Amino acid sequence: MAKLTKKLVDAFECPQGKEQAFLWCSERRGFAVRVTSAGVKSFIVQGRVGTKERRETIGRYGVFTVEKAKERAEEILRDMRHGVDPRAEKKRQAALNITLQAVADDYVLNKRTKNGALRASTQADIKRHVEQNFGDWAKEPIANITRDKCLKRFNEITKRSPSQANQAFVILRALINHAREMHATEDGDYPLLAVNPVQRMLKLRKLNPEEVRDRRIPTDMIGAVWSMLQERIVNARTLNDQNAAAYVAFLLLTGTRKTEAATLTWDRVNFNEDWFFIPKEIAKNHNALTFPLSDTLRSLIESRPKVEGNPYVFASWGKKSSHIGDPRGVMDRVSEIAGLHLSFHDLRRTAD
Questions:
Q1: Tens-digit pLDDT profile for residues 38-69
Q2: How many CB atoms lie within 10 A of CB 297?
Q3: Fewest Cβ atoms closer than 10 Å to its Cβ: which of 165, 272, 276, 306?
Q4: Spatial separation of the C-alpha atoms in residues 125 and 171, rounded to whole Å
């Protein structure tokens, strides 16, 4: 132990066979220079916060002079005497700087449900809302999100689409809760947003009432819709249009969800035993499903031409090895015949 000077620090070396060594300052207790076997020298400070001992790195020698490092050591030790934990303070500062985009990326990558990773559709919803409804917040610290900002943005989105406002803020609430837990301390403190601002907003403004949806193709129109689909399957000008009509017909016959149907591959159809299979990774409830093949459904699937190198029953002819996308033209025609605007989920209700 000796008074640290530039001359002493310059001459200080790590003894052979050791990974690191310390030269403690006699003038300021808890202040030292550390040298590694590679010759890297850094200033450190060591003290207690309550019953916890803390050792913190001030910075490298060269970036800090002995005098500047000593001044910084005195500041840190003074904070420790007042109960400030430098390790917790670093975590707090890191938490305060994390952005909404970073939280969303981490949530999509690491969040697990009881059935495993988030569904692809959930990931897509998160990405869409962060980009579209919270785009101006995405690169800002999440700590900047306040109750009043949430209330204003919720009302703005509600004017366009009440249901989308609900979904956007349910997602935002989940992302902020995820961020809070990421940065919670062992003592149960939340340095990043002690209270979720979305939760605070909901004490002033409830989510929009959801319309009970029971749309389906009217019973007396199902025949006309089916006839239109069959006509398009046979006479559509392009194979993509044929596949689009066949895909919508498949949804009507099976009641499967759009992604479950679009991603159906030939190896999951068994013509010998008359069934097709949806694995748990694709099914919305993460339960594997097996469906019987009726004569009509069998004929529909068998009529789909196989595309070399493409595994999907409803293949996209414009993108190699891809499945069908959004058959908007066919769905518009279905809605026209039915006399009301229909979604893919309305086809599922019709099949039920």
A1: 999 999 999 888 888 888 899 999 999 999 99
A2: 18
A3: 272
A4: 8
